[in-house]
Amino acid sequence: MIGDKKVLFSGMQATGSLTLGNYLGALKNWVSLSDEYECFYSVVDMHSITVRQDPAELRKRARALLILYIAAGLDPEKNTIYYQSHVSAHAELAWILNCFTYMGELSRMTQFKDKSAKHGDNINAGLFTYPVLMAADILLYQADVVPVGIDQMQHLELTRDIAMRFNAIYGDVFTIPEAYVGKQGAKIMSLQDPSKKMSKSDENPNASVYLMDDPDTVRRKLKRAVTDSEGAVRYRDEQPGVKNLIDIYSVCTGKLPEEVEREFEGRGYGEFKEAVGEAVVSVLSPLQKRVKELEKEKEYIDTVIRNNAEKAEMTARRTLRKVQKKVGFPERVREREQK
Ligand code: TRP
Question: Rg of the Cα trace of the chain?
Answer without folding.
Answer: 22
